[in-house]
Write a structure and sequence with these properties.
The protein has helices at 18-27, 59-67, 87-95, 106-116, 130-140, 145-159, 174-189, and strands at 7-11, 33-35, 38-40, 54-56, 71-78, 81-86, 99-104, 120-126, 167-170. With 192 residues, it is of the alpha/beta class. It has one domain: Rossmann fold (3-Layer(aba) Sandwich), CATH 3.40.50.300. Helix 5 runs antiparallel to helix 6 (145-159). The longest helix has 16 residues, at 174-189.
Length: 192
C-alpha cells in the first residue's frame, strides 16, 4: 500500500528566509521530504545549478510549456519573468513516495493550496519587520538598486497575503522559526 503524499508549501517575500528554512526541513530525514524544483525564465545566479535549484528555461520555452499545459501552476512574477511547477516534477517526486516541499512565491503558494486542498499545508514565512526584510535583501548584494526596489515593492504586497495561509511562521530567530516549521510539518505528515 502506498502512503498519501503530503504537500508542504512554503511562501514568503524574497529575503524572509523561506529557502533557508526549506533547506533545514529537507535536511531533516525524519520528515521524509523532497524538494520540488521549480522552473523559471530568469537567468541563473552564480551559485545556481540547472535541475538542482531551478529548471532554467528561456521565456519563449516557458510560454511554449504553458501552451502545452505542462505546468501544475505558473506565475509571471515580474514582467517577462516566469516561475512555475512542471507536472513532470510532481510525477517524479510522487513516484519516490516522499512528501513534497514547494518553495514558491506567494501567489503560487495560494494556487497550489487551491489545487491540493487538504493534502497541502501552506506556510507563510513572515519577516520580523519591513526594515529587517530590506536589510536582508541588501546584505545579499545580488542585485542593483532598481531590482531591489522592485522586490521591496512586491514584498509589501505579498505580506498582505499571509492570512490566506494555514500557518504563519515569523522568522525573527532562525532556529526558532525552523523548529516551529518542522513541528507543524511533523504533525501534518504524521512523521513525529
Amino acid at each position: 500500500m502506498t502512503k498519501e503524499i503530503k504537500i508542504i508549501i512554503l511562501s514568503a517575500p524574497s529575503g524572509a528566509g523561506k529557502s533557508t528554512i526549506a533547506n533545514e526541513i529537507l535536511a531533516d530525514e525524519t520528515l521524509k521530504c523532497s524538494f520540488s524544483v521549480s522552473a523559471t525564465s530568469r537567468s541563473p545566479r552564480a551559485h545556481e545549478t540547472n535541475g538542482e535549484h531551478y529548471y532554467f528555461l528561456s521565456s519563449e520555452t516557458f510560454r511554449e510549456y504553458i501552451e502545452k499545459d505542462l505546468f501544475v501552476e505558473w506565475e509571471e512574477v515580474y514582467a517577462g519573468q516566469y516561475y512555475g511547477t512542471l507536472k513532470s516534477e510532481l510525477d517524479r517526486l510522487t513516484a519516490a513516495q516522499r512528501n513534497i516541499v514547494f518553495d514558491v512565491d506567494v501567489k503560487g503558494g495560494i494556487r497550489l493550496k487551491q489545487i491540493f486542498g487538504e493534502r497541502a499545508l501552506s506556510m507563510f514565512i513572515m519577516p520580523p519587520s519591513s526594515e529587517e526584510l530590506q536589510n536582508r535583501l541588501r546584505k545579499r548584494n545580488t542585485e542593483c538598486e532598481e531590482s531591489l526596489q522592485k522586490r521591496l515593492k512586491r514584498a509589501e504586497e505579498e505580506l498582505s497575503f499571509a492570512p490566506m495561509f494555514d500557518i504563519v511562521v515569523v522568522n525573527d530567530d532562525l532556529g526558532q522559526a525552523v523548529a516551529e516549521a518542522k513541528k507543524h510539518i511533523a504533525m501534518f505528515t504524521g512523521t513525529f
